[in-house]
Each structure stands twice: as structure tokens, then as C-alpha cells.
Specification:
heterodimer; A: 583 residues; mainly alpha; 3 domains; 3-stranded antiparallel sheet; two-stranded antiparallel sheet; 19 helices; elongated; B: 517 residues; alpha/beta; Immunoglobulin-like; 8-stranded mixed sheet; 4-stranded antiparallel sheet; disordered N terminus
């Protein structure tokens, strides 16, 4: 068995993996900056899980041993939970989010260093990125304008991750084996194409782009939408004291449309639930303020106390603290104002996959008083609509998430084209419509405010600056080697001219080997003028006096060789040589 | 580059199936479960051309292999289609599994992961089928292999130099090189990137310590593999180079022991002469002396009977034949290194004793059986203390053989036989045995142990696979068994014969002789 110290190539895969995860977590944090309760457990679970997984992989533990250890850990988990309960006084500290993140992160972290399970390992960071991509303020199913940098980044990191894994595998292949391995000594590149390295990267990029296009083309057709909790409707809730004002002169009530709401409650299914779109807020602001209530759902929603002025919902607590006297199918049940006055300070409890899961919202807090709901603007009196003939009832969304093809449903188009009033379903048991006053919604947050474009521009600018600095450094170095900026000895100037000539040779992909003497190099390369340079340089090296005429000859010969080599390289290679490092 | 290596056919068939089967299963499931209308259109538009091109490439490759097979029956169609690595097959299956899971669970990330994997897989496979076409993907590259120095002494470093000139490495691929000199040598592994395609690259590695012998290095195995580890070309062989490793000369402790005991080569030998011959030693007549030996002139002068004694050759420059017994027909049946290591020790002892005898003034003739063409023949070489080169070359050529018994090498001259064991028969004439016994390191070697809970190599290594670990464990177990058996066969018949010697190599790499009484 042979074991040698692996090269640094082996660390790249782990680092790229961490980069993917960190970027995903950072994106989530930016998107949910206002709800640290959501992303802090996610950070903890992800970092701890991946750290543990990669540590176990680094320790070379076999999977069966880890499985046994996991079973033991599960058996001991009640004790851990008890300790946590004693420490925190409650388990409502985001523990389940932490566990939900920790387990797959540990598995994927372990597999990230495996030989053949890289795709499984890629799932966890991809899942984080997908949440970031889909969970956006202006989230349509696939908003190419805003998510393009993220999608490109995900595809690029996927390719880089796979390639770094293969590079790591190659390095391990060369350093570890059951057989006794020879010790590599030196690697001398005598001649190579100066552009092949770049073309290799271009090929990798092209493969990545192709894969990304395929994925972007086909994958959305495999996405499935699930309904948010049916009672987690994003319905503006009238304040209790305003309820009386919602009845117009005709005694009708004004409500939102059930169908439109249920369309808005759909979201792309993911391991971690994606936030119901806050786009609904903008749509709320744009849509008609009220419609005639004809469905029992409004009454149910009102009774549940799950409505918030910012679209907040409380799926678990719905109807719990409010007097849920309303029957789902009885349309005329009036909402009890107690819960109706609740207010969601965070604006969206529906997406809280935190400790209490959905519905850890305001509806569960008895007697919670809204801190400062935005005062509803005076609303002009709404004229009640005349009764409309009953329409076919829209199928109620089931509590269990259902598979809905994203493209097939086209929710946005439906929302836009559907007349809000016409979609109002009639309820057979509704003897008299109820008008509910809708408060004026705050303006929707500006879309496209995410920092991705700025960050991308900053990165590109940094890269451009870096390349520009390389080119500048090269020009300065060449200038100094040709005509030194400060006074130097004759011998040093001869050596400088030789180095300048070598730079030109490297531009053409010609490299001197280790311990290759100047004359041998000149003979191998066979460019006119190199022999002169080599002769003068060897005279300097052997301490034979050189004069100004020798320097002039060296200058002329090295310049000729430099130009000949660069001409031989070609225009593209010359351009690439501008930013080559080291010189 | 000559014949490619073959891979086991069940695995080959599995990998070939992985080119098409996972995708077919995954999309069948997707079309069944999901809304078929839109998905079918999109998949047909996006992946359909890829599938068509992949299928067409496979058909073309299979047809080309079938055509070549008419002229060369060794060409295998299945092997021609085998372009996937195990990692590539895993990617195919995992991406398809992700798509199926995306259909079942509906998670968007699974769909993205599956499509990214499937897209990358299909693109790389297609490009590989194009880039790795033909019998010689390297396109007649010049790969030169040499060893520095070409003649080296045992246990010293040997530098293997590989020079690649004009090697064609397609874009997106790497060139993998693996090779070794022989079974007991270190394996050298190198990787060349496509950036070095068409250039001139020199790779060096230390494959030492050198193992005694005249070696024709095993061919280098060369293949191409893409930068994602999905596809690989067929392996090609690059002919090897030669390296000669001379045995190391060792010192002998108690060097004169073989010559100091009994009537060995240092004892004087009487010369057969007629009774009337001999002039140097005289003495008075004693009763029983041959009357023909009476020196009458001296007797008259001395007035008593004086007789002449026969002359003797003084032992000023004794001669000895030093035979190395290499007859061991069972050696080729052992997979372990014990027979080879023992032969190296025997050669070391043989040369060490020969040099010691030569330095003490004895004329030493080295005798052994060496390969000559297809057979073996006895070979003699006088050992000169000032020119050891020929003797060392002789030592480098020694191998186990099954043709010439040690009896065929014996003569009436004084002889020392260096052997793996003393033959169970009485001493004959001037023959003395020197049996080489294994040292502690050879008797109790340290075998690598494999933990069931820990992987032997860093995670990600191919050698961590269960099949390979099992294979390695079986190999070690077999080697242990054979090592024990080889020790019994090689040394089990040894019986201490009075007047013989035991020789062993010490840790200081000297030869220690022990006389048996």
C-alpha cells in the first residue's frame, strides 16, 4: 500500500462545495433578512451538517459505521431534546429547521468527497440555491430577468464542482494506492501551445452552458406546484372595528375572490418550503378592493383569524383563538372580531418553517394586539354589485399538496386574465352578500432590489482590474528588462535581456527545462539570434568580461528573438500572454 | 502502442447499458406521471436530438467495430462501445434517479440536479464518442520511456523518464499513464492535461529502490479520460524499456571461516610421483619403507640408509569453485515475493563470499546456471578482486531455473555451494554447503491490515470500493499463505550437516556465516 502526500488539488472539491453552500445560505439570508428565526437555524444546521459529514469523510469512516452511529444517536436523541428543553425552556428554538437542514447536509457533505456520489452531494447546495432562485419578491415561476445570474452561478458551480471532484480523484489516484507508487520528481514542459490551457477552460464552460440550457429548458416542466395551506390565505383582513363599515348601504358585504386567492397560494414545491410570494402583496394593491362575498370561505377565513394586513397567515392557529363559530359551508357566519384584529408583525408567518412550522403566527397568540397596523385609508363607499348567476364552483385546494404542472396551470396568466368579479363563486347557502371593507394595502416592495447584479458587476470589475494589473505589470517588467528604470551593471543588463527573451519564448509556449544550459536551449529552439544571446550570457556567467558592444549585440539579438517568438505564437497567444502569470 | 487492455464483460455490459437505459427509464416514468403533453414536447425538443446523436454514434461505432472484426477477430464490439467510467455510469443512473424523484416528490431542486447531470452526461458522452473515435485515440504519439541510469546497483534510486512528444489529447480530456518495471517495483502514475497536447513534456519519477535483475519493463498503460471523469478511451500499451540492476556487494563477517576448517581449499595436496622421483625431503630409512626410495649416494655418504620422500604442491594459491544453486522448479508457482527475495539474498551471499575469498588470495570461479535463449546453461566466471564488473553482471542475470541440478555443476575441485537449503545427503569430496537462511524481515513480514470500519485510502479513491478492498484482502491472505508455503518449501528440507555453513543477511546488509558442527 502506498500513501503519499496529496497535492493541493484535493482540497479544491471541498472548498468549492463549501462555496456553493455558503452562497446559497447567504442568498437565503439576504432574502429573509427580516426573519432571522428562519435562516439562523438553517445556517447552524447546514454548517454543522456539512462540517460533520466532511469530517467523517476525512476520517475515512465507512458508511455502515456512520449508519450505526446514527441509529445510536437517534436512540439518544430524547435525552438531547430533554436537555435542550431544560436549557431553553422550550423546544421552540428552530430545532426542527436545524434538524431538517442538518441531516441532509451531513449526508451530502459526506458524499461530497465520495468517488461516485457527487450528484447526490450536489443536491443540498442546489436545493438552497433553488430556494433563493424561486423565493424572490417578484417570484414568478422562473423570472429570467432576476434569476439569470443565480441560475448561471448554480450551473457554473455545478460544472466547477464536478471538475474539481475529478481533479481530486485524479490527485488521489496518483498518490494513494494499494500498490507501491513511485515518487514523482519533476515535470518539465519543454514546448506547448500557449492557448490550450485557456481552451480547456472554454470547453468546460461550453459543457456547463449546454447543461445549464438543457436544465433551464426542461427542468421547469418537472417542477410541481403545491398549494400553500388552504387556510393560509393571503387575504387582507379588515380590522374588527371596521367590520361594520364594510356593509354598504344595500347591506351587502365586500370580499376578495376565492379563486384568485387560491391561485396565488400556489408555490413551487421544494424540500424547504418556498415562501408564498410577496408578489401577492403587489397584486393586492392593484386589484379591486372588494367584491361581493358569496362564498363560505370568506366567513371561514374571517372566523379563523388568520388574515393579516401583510398577507400573514397562521395555518396552525387558524380558528383556534378566534371564536371559530363559523361553519365552512355556512356562508353567513360572521367573523368574530377578536382574531380578526390580529396582526402579523413579520408579515408572513405562512412560510415560517421554524420551530413551530406553519402557523406559528399571530393567530396562536391569544389576545395579541396588533402593534400598529397601518391605518386604512379612507375608502370610498363601495357600491354593492347586483347578484350574479351562480358560477361553477372552483375546486377547493386540498390540504395535501397536489401535483400541478407549472407550465400547464400558468397561474399568472390566469390571474391576469380572470375578471376579478366574475370569478366570484356563488354559494348556494348565501342568502345575502356581505360587504367587507378592505384596508388600503401598503405599496409592494420594489422588485429587482436584490444585490445580485451589483455583486456580479463588482466581481467582474474586480476580475477586469486584476487582469489589467497583470498586463500593466508585464509591460513594466518588459520595459525594465529592455531599458532598466535604474542604473544596473552590465552583467545584470545582459541577464535582463536573456530574461526578456525567455518571456517571448514562453509566449510561444517554449519553456527551458531544468538545468538546461543556454547553448542547449538555443540549439533546441533554433531561432536566429538565440545563439548570440546564449554565447554572451555564458560569457557573463563564466566571468569573462563583456563590453558595451556585447550589450548592444545582446539587445539586438534578444529583441529579434522576442519578436520572432511572439510572431510564431500568433495573435491570440499574444493577447493571452498579456495576462499570463507568472511571466 | 499496441493491444488495448480488456475489461470484464459483465461490467462492460453494464456500462454500455448505462448509456441509454437510465434515461429511458427516467423519462418513461416522467411521461407517465407528469403532464405528458408539454413535457413530451420540451423533452423531445431538448433531449431528443441528443439521444438521436448518441444512438447514431453508438451505431456507427458498433458497425465500425464489426467491420474491423472481420480482419481482426480480437476486436470486441462491446469493448468498442464501452466508453463510460464507473463514475460516468454512476452519473447516468443518479441523474435519472433524480428526475424520477423529481416526478415523485416534486422538489424543484431534484429536477434541476437531474437535468444538469443528464445534460452534462449526454454532452460529454457525445463529445467523447467523437473525440475518441478510431483505433488509436492518441494518434501515433511519440512516448519515449527510459531509465536513468540504465545500469544501477541494487537498492539505489532509479529515475524513470517519460518523454511525450506530439501527443494528441483532445480538448476536455486528460491523458493517464500508468506503468511499472516489474511486480516488485513501484508503479508510476502520471496525468497530462489537454493544455500539454501536441507539446513536449518530460515526466520523471523515482521508481526505486532498484530490484536486482535484468529487467524489461512492463508496457506502459495509456488512456484518455475526460475532465469530469465520465468517459475514457480504450487503454493502449506503450512498449517498455530495459534496465539492469546489479547486485549490491556486501561484506562478509568471519570471512575465512569456510577456508579455515578441515581439508578445505587451503590444505596442501600430495603430488603423485614415482618412487624414484622426489629430491627435496630425505630421512632415515624406517622399517617398511619402499626400498626403491633408498637414496644410495646419500646412504654411502651418511653410512646409513636414507630414503627420499614424495614431493607436495605448496598451498600458496588455492582454487575454489563457488557454485550458486538456482534449481527451484516451484518458484514460478508462488505469487509471493519470498522466492525472489531469497534469490537476491543468495546472490548477495554468493558474491560476498566470492569477493572475500578473492581478496584473501584464493582463485575463485563463480559457477551458476544462466538463461541462454530458451534454455539454461552452466556458466563460469573467474572472479577478480580488481574487476568485479563481469561477476556483478553475472549476478544480475541469475534467475530461478528448473533445468540444471547442482550435481551437474560439481567437479572434483574444491567447491563451495551456495544454496537455499542443504541437500539431505552426505558430503561428497571437497563440496561444502552454504545455506542461505531468511532474515527476520523475510520470516515475519509486516502485512498490511485493513480495517472494516475505516477506508484504507482517502475518500474518493477508487481503491476504497468494496470490490477492490475485498480483492486486496484476498490477495493479502493468499500472499500470506503462499509465503508460509514458500518458506516451508524453500527451507523446510534443510538439515544441519556438519562442516556446512548457514549464511544470513543482517540488517546492516552484511553476510553473517555460522559454521555447523
Amino acid at each position: 500500500m502506498s500513501t503519499r502526500t496529496s497535492s493541493n488539488h484535493t482540497a479544491a472539491a471541498a472548498l468549492v462545495y463549501w462555496l456553493m453552500v455558503m452562497c446559497g445560505l447567504a442568498g437565503l439570508s439576504v432574502l429573509r433578512m427580516n426573519t432571522p428565526r428562519e435562516f439562523v437555524p438553517l445556517w447552524i444546521g447546514s454548517v454543522a451538517g456539512i462540517g460533520l459529514g466532511q469530517t467523517l469523510a476525512w476520517l475515512r469512516l465507512r458508511a455502515w459505521l456512520i449508519a450505526v452511529m446514527s441509529i445510536v444517536a437517534i436512540a439518544a436523541s430524547p435525552v438531547v431534546f430533554a436537555v435542550l428543553y431544560m436549557v431553553f425552556g422550550s423546544l421552540d428554538v428552530g430545532l426542527d429547521t436545524c434538524v431538517l437542514a442538518f441531516v441532509p447536509a451531513a449526508v451530502c457533505g459526506y458524499l461530497s468527497l465520495s468517488e461516485r456520489a457527487g450528484l447526490i452531494a450536489f443536491w443540498y447546495p442546489a436545493m438552497l440555491w433553488m430556494v433563493v432562485i424561486l423565493d424572490r419578491p417578484s417570484a414568478a415561476a422562473f423570472d429570467s430577468q432576476n434569476v439569470l445570474p443565480l441560475v448561471a452561478g448554480l450551473g457554473g458551480l455545478f460544472v466547477v464542482f464536478l471538475r474539481s471532484r475529478e481533479t481530486r480523484r485524479t490527485a488521489i489516484w496518483g498518490a494513494h494506492s494499494t500498490l507501491r507508487l513511485a515518487e514523482p520528481l519533476s515535470r518539465t514542459v519543454l514546448r506547448t501551445s500557449p492557448l490550450r490551457g485557456a481552451s480547456q477552460h472554454l470547453w468546460t464552460g461550453a459543457v456547463g452552458v449546454g447543461s445549464l440550457l438543457l436544465a433551464a429548458w426542461v427542468a421547469p416542466h418537472l417542477w410541481q406546484k403545491e398549494a400553500a395551506h388552504p387556510h393560509a390565505a393571503i387575504v387582507p383582513q379588515p380590522l374588527a372595528e371596521d367590520t361594520s363599515a364594510t356593509v354598504d348601504s344595500n347591506g351587502d358585504q365586500c370580499c376578495t375572490t376565492d379563486d384568485v386567492e387560491e391561485q396565488r397560494r400556489e408555490r413551487v414545491r421544494e424540500y424547504f418550503p418556498i415562501r408564498s410570494t410577496t408578489q401577492a402583496q403587489a397584486q393586492h394593491a392593484a386589484r379591486p378592493l372588494c367584491t361581493r362575498c358569496q362564498s363560505g370561505k370568506h366567513a371561514r377565513d374571517a372566523a379563523s383569524g388568520a388574515k393579516g394586513v401583510r398577507g400573514g397567515t397562521a395555518s396552525r392557529g387558524y380558528g383556534k383563538d378566534g371564536s371559530s363559530t363559523g361553519n365552512y359551508w355556512s356562508a353567513d357566519t360572521t367573523a368574530v372580531p377578536m382574531a380578526a384584529g390580529a396582526y402579523a408583525p413579520t408579515g408572513d408567518a405562512n412560510d415560517s418553517y421554524g420551530a413551530t412550522g406553519y402557523g406559528n403566527g399571530y393567530g396562536t397568540v391569544p389576545g395579541y394586539v396588533a402593534p400598529e397596523p397601518p391605518a386604512p385609508d379612507p375608502v370610498a363607499e363601495v357600491k354593492p354589485l347586483p347578484p350574479v348567476p351562480p358560477l361553477p364552483k372552483v375546486a377547493k385546494l386540498a390540504a395535501v399538496p397536489s401535483k400541478v404542472d407549472v407550465v400547464a396551470t400558468k397561474p399568472e396568466a390566469k390571474v391576469e386574465t380572470e375578471p376579478p368579479f366574475a370569478a366570484s363563486p356563488a354559494h348556494a347557502t348565501s342568502p345575502k352578500p356581505t360587504v367587507v371593507l378592505l384596508p388600503q394595502q401598503p405599496a409592494a416592495p420594489p422588485t429587482g432590489g436584490t444585490p445580485w447584479r451589483s455583486a456580479l458587476a463588482l466581481c467582474m470589475g474586480g476580475i477586469a482590474l486584476h487582469l489589467a494589473m497583470r498586463a500593466l505589470r508585464r509591460q513594466l517588467t518588459l520595459r525594465h528588462l529592455a531599458r532598466p528604470f535604474w542604473r544596473e551593471t552590465l552583467d545584470q543588463r545582459v541577464s535582463n535581456q536573456w530574461q526578456r527573451m525567455l518571456i517571448g519564448l514562453r509566449d510561444a509556449g517554449i519553456h527551458p527545462s531544468t538545468d538546461e544550459q543556454p547553448q542547449a536551449l538555443a540549439k533546441r529552439v533554433d531561432i536566429e539570434g538565440m545563439a548570440t544571446c546564449a554565447t554572451i550570457l555564458e560569457r557573463v556567467r563564466h566571468g569573462i568580461r563583456v563590453g558595451a558592444d556585447d550589450l548592444a549585440a545582446m539587445d539586438a539579438a534578444s529583441t529579434a528573438v522576442y519578436r520572432a517568438a511572439r510572431n510564431k505564437a500568433g495573435a491570440a497567444a499574444r493577447a493571452a500572454a498579456l495576462v499570463r502569470s507568472p511571466l | 502502442m499496441t493491444e488495448p487492455l480488456t475489461r470484464s464483460w459483465p461490467k462492460t455490459a453494464f456500462r454500455v447499458a448505462a448509456l441509454v437505459v437510465p434515461s429511458a427509464l427516467a423519462w418513461r416514468e416522467a411521461f407517465t406521471e407528469a403532464h405528458p403533453s408539454d413535457l413530451t414536447d420540451v423533452v423531445t425538443s431538448a433531449l431528443g436530438p441528443l439521444w438521436l446523436m448518441l444512438f447514431a454514434s453508438l451505431v456507427v461505432r458498433a458497425v465500425a467495430a464489426a467491420v474491423r472484426r472481420r480482419h481482426d477477430p480480437s476486436v470486441s464490439i462491446l469493448a468498442e462501445l464501452d466508453v463510460l467510467t464507473s463514475g460516468g455510469a454512476a452519473l447516468a443512473w443518479l441523474s435519472s434517479f433524480s428526475i424520477v424523484l423529481a416526478v415523485w416528490l416534486g422538489w424543484a431542486s431534484l429536477a434541476v440536479v437531474g437535468l444538469l447531470g443528464a445534460g452534462l452526461f449526454h454532452i460529454v458522452v457525445l463529445l467523447s464518442l467523437v473525440a475518441l473515435r478510431g483505433k488509436d485515440p492518441m494518434r501515433a504519439a511519440s512516448i519515449t520511456r527510459s531509465f536513468t541510469p540504465e545500469i544501477v546497483t541494487e537498492d539505489e534510486a532509479v529515475i524513470e523518464e517519460l518523454r511525450f512528444e506530439g501527443v494528441r489529447i483532445p480538448l476536455g480530456f486528460r491523458l493517464f499513464v500508468e506503468g511499472r518495471v516489474g511486480p516488485r517495483w513501484a508503479t508510476s502514475r502520471h496525468v497530462l492535461d489537454a493544455a500539454e497536447s501536441g507539446g513536449e513534456v518530460v515526466l520523471e519519477s523515482d521508481v526505486g529502490p532498484a530490484i536486482r535483475g535484468e529487467h524489461e519493463a512492463e508496457p506502459l498503460i495509456v488512456w484518455l479520460q475526460d475532465t469530469f471523469g465520465i468517459c475514457r478511451s480504450r487503454s493502449a500499451l506503450v512498449v517498455g524499456a530495459n534496465v539492469t540492476v546489479l547486485p549490491r556487494l556486501r561484506e562478509t563477517e568471519k570471512a575465512s571461516a569456510p577456508l579455515d576448517r578441515g581439508d578445505g581449499p587451503r590444505a596442501a595436496q600430495p603430488v603423485f610421483q614415482l618412487p624414484t622421483e622426489g629430491f627435496f625431503r630425505l630421512r632415515e630409512y624406517q622399517q617398511g619403507d619402499d626400498v626403491r626410495r633408498i637414496h644410495w649416494v646419500r646412504s654411502l655418504a651418511a653410512r646409513e640408509l636414507i630414503v627420499r620422500l614424495p614431493d607436495e604442491v605448496p598451498p600458496d594459491r588455492p582454487r575454489v569453485r563457488l557454485i550458486l544453486d538456482t534449481f527451484f522448479p516451484e518458484a514460478s508457482h508462488f505469487a509471493c515475493d519470498a522466492p525472489s527475495e531469497l534469490l537476491d539474498s543468495m546472490v548477495g551471499v554468493w558474491l560476498a563470499i566470492g569477493r572475500t575469498l578473492a581478496e584473501s588470495g584464493t582463485r575463485v570461479t563463480l559457477v551458476t546456471a544462466l538463461p541462454q535463449g530458451e534454455t539454461y546453461a552452466p556458466t563460469r566466471q573467474d572472479l577478480s578482486r580488481r574487476a568485479l564488473g563481469p561477476a556483478l553482471r553475472l549476478g544480475a542475470k541469475v534467475t530461478w531455473q528448473n533445468r540444471i541440478l547442482v550435481d551437474d555443476l560439481l567437479t572434483k575441485e574444491a567447491t563451495l555451494v551456495v544454496s537455499r537449503a542443504m541437500l539431505a545427503r552426505p558430503q561428497e569430496g571437497n563440496v561444502r554447503w552454504i545455506a542461505v537462511v531468511p532474515g527476520d524481515q523475510a520470516t515475519n513480514p509486516v502485512w498490511p491490515t485493513q480495517s472494516e470500519a475505516l477506508m484504507p485510502h482517502p475518500m474518493g479513491s477508487e481503491d476504497n470500493r468494496w470490490s477492490r478492498c475485498r480483492e486486496a484482502s484476498n490477495r493479502i491472505a493468499r500472499l500470506r499463505t503462499e509465503h508460509t508455503r514458500a518458506l516451508l518449501v524453500m527451507h523446510g528440507v534443510a538439515r544441519p550437516l556438519p562442516g556446512s555453513f548457514l549464511a544470513r543477511l543482517t540488517e546492516g546488509r552484511t553476510v553473517q556465516l555460522e559454521a555447523l558442527r
